Amino acid sequence: MSPRRPTRTDISLRFEEEGFENGARRIAGIDEAGRGPLAGPVVAAAVVLPRGFSLPRLNDSKLLTPAAREEVFDGIRSAALATGVGIVPPQVIDEINVLQATRLAMVQAVNQIRPSPDYLLIDGPITLDVNIPQRPIVHGDRLCCSVAAASIIAKVTRDRIMMEMHELYPMYGFDSHKGYGTEAHRAALKQYGHCPIHRKSYKGVKGIGKGTQPAPSEGESRSGIRNTK
User: Fold this and answer.
1) Are 146 and 27 in contact (CB under 8 A)?
2) For the chain, what is the mean pLDDT?
3) Within a 10 A sphere around the Cβ of 54, how many other Cβ atoms?
């Protein structure tokens, strides 16, 4: 039997406090958004919160409405000691697989934190190839405040990218499903073929012909669609 999925009331600072009690001073929570969609990047965030941080509506990003996520996003960015975001585009996801792309995005996010964190709290059974003590937490986005904060930063960042991509490729409806494999998205793929931000190794895209849409320009690469820099 799989572990019970925690609820909002399970979120606390106990993982952070354990880290502080063991000598850590800059603890980063890490989470990702976008492993499952058929299109767009995978985005990870790392967030260092002040000790004793409190934000009443903080929760796993998947349990909040878009409006609530935006509100909490602003609260996190205002209070956080540091935030970092890593973005890995679909071309790299196809090359190295989404698990490795997730790890890459997480490492990118950690590397943006200055000064560097000295302890990492990571959502899920994932460890990173960095020389920093770390603790993976299954369902961490519903148990650990720092990880929940990272889930919000990652989700809102990715949603904003997909809204930009909707302006380029409106026929797919990225503004509504954000690249996930909804019935409407799959129908659009059959009608128009795949576009440059689709994950061509994914079931539901693999085997579908290429559409006529151009790739994003260099100016649009700030969204992380074409590169990871």
Assistant:
1) yes
2) 90
3) 10
Rounded mean pLDDT, 31-54: 97
Q: Which of 47, 14, 30, 19 is nearest to 119 (CA)?
A: 19
**Nearest residue to 224 via CA among 120, 141, 82, 104:** 104
What span, in angstroms and rounded, lies between the C-alpha atoms of 91 and 116?
Answer: 29
Q: Specify the pLDDT at position 229.
A: 30
Q: Strands of the chain (E only): list them.
A: 27-33, 42-48, 82-88, 119-123, 134-137
Single pTM value for the model: 0.89
Answer whether 123's CB lies under 8 Å from 41's CB: no
Q: Domain spanning 11-161: which CATH class is it, in words?
A: alpha beta
Neighbour-count burial of 141, counting CB atoms closer than 10 A to its CB (0-12 exposed, 13-18 middle, 19+ buried) = buried
With a pLDDT cut of 90, the percent of the chain lying above it is: 79
Beta-bridge partners for 42: 88
Q: Which of 24, 50, 54 is nearest to 118 (CA)?
A: 24
Q: Which of 78, 9, 42, 38 is closest to 177 using CA atoms?
A: 38
Q: Domain coordinates of the chain in residue numbers? A: 11-161, 164-208
> 38 near 177, Cβ under 8 Å?
no
Helix (H, G, I), strand (E, B) or coil at 157: helix
Question: In b/e form, how buried is each residue of 106-126, taking b as 16+ CB within 10 angstroms?
Answer: bbbbbeebeeebebbbbbbeb
